[in-house]
């Protein structure tokens, strides 16, 4: 993680005004899923629209 006095840098080398920038963040996570139980993993990046994460097992997609 960066210190408070340092600015975060977007992951993408080019700026796309249609999409919020994504910022790298690596934190261990635990997700409690109604259908898959307790899932362990870690985050990859974060943006205004959500967080990307890597999980230990594959989870079925439940939405379109």
Furnish the topology, listing elements before pairings.
Blueprint: E1 23-24, E2 28-33, E3 37-47, E4 50-55
Antiparallel strand pairs: 1-3, 2-3, 3-4
Give a verbal description of the structure.
The protein is mainly beta and 64 residues long. It has a domain at 23-55. Helix content is 0%, strand content 39%. Strands 1, 2, 3 and 4 form a four-stranded antiparallel β-sheet that branches. The radius of gyration is 14 Å and the shape is elongated.
List keywords for this structure.
64 residues; mainly beta; 4-stranded antiparallel beta sheet
N-C termini distance: 33 Å
Structural class of the secondary elements?
Answer: mainly beta
Number of helices: 0
Low-confidence stretches: none
Find the count of extended strands (DSSP E, 2+ residues). 4
Q: How can the largest sheet be summarized?
A: 4 strands, antiparallel
How do the SSEs run, as a string of H and E? EEEE
Write a brief caption for the model:
With about 60 residues, the chain is mainly β. It has no helices and 4 strands. It starts with about 20 loop residues before the first strand and ends in a 9-residue tail after the last strand.
């Amino acid at each position: 993680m960066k210190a408070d006095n340092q600015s975060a840098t977007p992951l993408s080398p080019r700026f796309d005004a249609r999409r919020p920038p994504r910022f790298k963040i690596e934190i261990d996570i635990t997700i409690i899923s109604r259908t898959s139980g307790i899932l362990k993993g870690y985050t990859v990046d974060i943006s205004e629209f959500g967080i990307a994460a890597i999980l230990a097992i594959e989870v079925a997609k439940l939405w379109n």
